[in-house]
Amino acid sequence: MSDAAALMDRMYRHQRRIYDVTRKYYLLGRDEAIARLAPGPGEAVLEIGCGTGRNLIRAARAAPQAQFYGLDVSREMLETAEAAIRRAGLAGRVSVAQADATAFDPAALFGRATFERVMISYALSMIPPWREALAKGLDVVAPGGALHVVDFGDCAGLPAPFKAALRRWLAAFDVTPREDLDETLAAFAAARGFSSATESWGRGYATLAVARRAA
Predict the structure, then answer these.
(1) Sign of CA dihedral 42, 54, 170, 158
(2) Which of these ranges, 15-19, 46-50, 60-64, 149-153, has the smallest mean pLDDT?
(3) 57 neighbors 88 (Cβ within 8 angstroms)
(4) Number of independent structural domains in the chain
(5) Domain range spanning residue 37?
């Protein structure tokens, strides 16, 4: 985890202070993904790659009877998240911890092995071993629960010049859209007995996906 943590800390040491202001213009679909979580009373939600805590705070406000957890490899981002959670008055319902998205022990971090909802929002495109992170997300879904994923899509319906410019810009931030996310999630979900469905937003700009585990 140390190499990944150091890289993310270097990248976000200063960006974290303006991250939410700048990202809201192009992280299409993340608020829709949050709205679809809809956890019930007493249920638990985990966000993998929680960053500044923005999504956790929004989700916790929408579901006041649920408990929320987040993990991120960057200590710098978690400092911002912890401060934001305290300012929002949600420290009693939202907990965050530093961990590698591909290999974490939720029981050691949060005192529970599974979660009714797991969310990964625009994080897989920044995690080199993203398939391992996706598999881990599925593995910590509780019976009857679901994994919700939103990230950059294949941009198949967008004009070629726009797609090329977008990919160059994202690459400057070490962001790589996972063009086979749909197929990978479907395969991983089926192997675990989950059902899965994906949606393309903005002519392929973003992908929203849900994998549900039987009760």
Answers:
(1) positive
(2) 15-19
(3) yes
(4) 1
(5) 2-213
- Measured distance CA(167)–CA(83) in Å, rounded: 32
Residue type, 5: A
Cα distances from 20 to residues 40, 54, 167, in angstroms, run 27, 7, 21
From residue 90, give the alpha-carbon distance in Å to each of 20, 42, 48, 65: 18, 15, 18, 12
Band of residue 1 on the pLDDT scale cut at 50, 70, 90? low
CATH number at residue 51: 3.40.50.150
Quote the pTM value: 0.88
Among 158, 147, 153, CA closest to 197: 147
Strand partners, 148: 119, 210
Contact 25, 58 (CB under 8 A): no
What is residue 27's predicted lDDT score, i.e. its pLDDT?
81
Residues 64-90: tens digit of each pLDDT? 999 999 999 999 999 999 999 999 999
* Residues comprising the chain, all counted: 215
Q: Which of 83, 192, 98 is nearest to 145 (CA)?
A: 192
How many whole angstroms separate alpha carbon 141 and alpha carbon 153? 23
Under 8 Å between Cβ of 207 and 149:
yes
